[in-house]
């Protein structure tokens, strides 16, 4: 990667620095133990939209609610004893990091999560 600009900055009284001519509105900031700071541009945008199938399902749910057709209440008592493995937590954490970075991947494969 070739450097396009190189200049010295100093933090203001609130420990902030200014990026001159910033090309992006948002940046992912990574601070390393040796004092290095890495800025990666992030584009925050609206998702592609809601699919027609999802909109139909939502319309049907609202119609059922208005007509008084409601499902049986969910039994959430079993969730209290749910144990999630460390491997599953690590995979979920990695997926969340990728989501925050705007990395769009294949649909989530739930089989990798041991629930």
Task: Describe the model.
- There is one protein chain.
- This protein is α+β, with helices and mostly antiparallel strands and 115 residues long.
- Helix content is 27%, strand content 10%.
- The protein contains two helices and two strands; from the N terminus they run E-E-H-H.
- The protein has a two-stranded antiparallel ribbon with strand order 1-2.
- A hairpin with a 5-residue loop joins strand 1 (26-31) and strand 2.
- It is elongated, with a radius of gyration of 23 Å.
From the structure provided, what is the oligomeric state, counting identical versus distinct chains?
A: single chain
Strand content: 5-15%
Strand order of the largest sheet: 1-2
Count, helices: 2
- The total beta strand count reads 2
Structural class determined from secondary elements: alpha+beta
| Overall pLDDT metric | 80
Termini separation comes to 42 Å
Shape: elongated
Enumerate the spans where pLDDT stays under 50 for 5 or more consecutive residues.
Answer: none
Largest sheet: 2 strands, antiparallel
* Helix and strand sequence: EEHH
Helicity range of the residues? Answer: 25-40%
Label this structure with key terms.
2 helices, alpha+beta, 10% strand, single chain, two-stranded antiparallel ribbon, 115 residues
Quick rundown:
By secondary structure, this protein is an alpha+beta fold. The chain has two helices and two strands.
Task: Present the secondary structure layout.
Layout: E1 26-31, E2 37-42, H1 52-67, H2 86-100
Antiparallel strand pairs: 1-2
């Amino acid at each position: 990667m070739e450097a396009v600009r190189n200049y010295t900055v100093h933090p203001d009284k609130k420990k902030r620095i200014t990026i001159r001519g910033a090309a992006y509105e948002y940046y992912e900031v990574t601070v390393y133990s040796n004092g290095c700071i890495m800025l990666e541009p992030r584009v925050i945008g609206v998702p592609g939209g809601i699919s027609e199938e999802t909109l139909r399902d939502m319309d049907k749910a609202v119609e059922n609610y208005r007509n008084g057709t409601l499902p049986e209440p969910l039994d959430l008592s079993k969730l209290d004893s749910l144990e999630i493995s460390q491997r599953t937590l690590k995979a979920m954490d990695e997926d969340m990091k990728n989501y925050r970075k705007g990395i769009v991947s294949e649909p989530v494969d739930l089989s990798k999560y041991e629930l």
